[in-house]
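debug: dumping io for the single-chain case to check the tokenizer round-trip. Nothing else runs in this session.
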Amino acid sequence: MRRSRSDAAETRERIVSTASKMFLEKGLESVGMRDIMAAAGLTPGGFYRHFESKEQLICEANDAAFHHLLEMFESRTAGKPAAEALEIIVSLYLNQSQREGNTFRCPLSMNGGELSHCEPQVRAIALNGYQRTVQMVADRIEQVNKAQALAIAGGVVSTMVGAVTMANLAPNEEAAGAILSNAHGVIRTLLSVAGVGATNGAVKEKKRAAR
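debug: decoded output
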């Protein structure tokens, strides 16, 4: 019995992992249950032994994607000064769809248009993922109070999500790169004006050099 439960848990995890990757790459609507089960090396009939519906799988797949993304950010910024960590997070997020073989993608920017038409439980997972991302950014904005940090972080995350969404619609890599570069510049300006971020240190250094 223990072995059976262990096998079932491993199979369920494999389905969620496969679905998460496929949803992020191809979209929610275009990926069917048969596609996912085949990619996971399983028979289609086994799907409903693990999930009640496609919506339940989308919820779990997106939750896993957010966890994977935020865990990667935490790993890449561990031990870094707050300003440097912010720059790393923004750079990684904005380049998520431009890097070949990248396995870290955000459901908000990859499937945002579709998520807005999904069932409430699916949208709730997406909103929770957004809030977790905002909190992670806000935790690295140290020069202002918590409410201000959350407001700034909300602007940063919304800008990143919108930029990647538009870059995915761009007709070519040059246009996509321009969208992402412009967004990065806006975020750097926002952080600098607010007195936080990597650019703040650079501005202070220039002022000292000019004296």
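debug: round-trip ok. The chain has one domain: 54-210.
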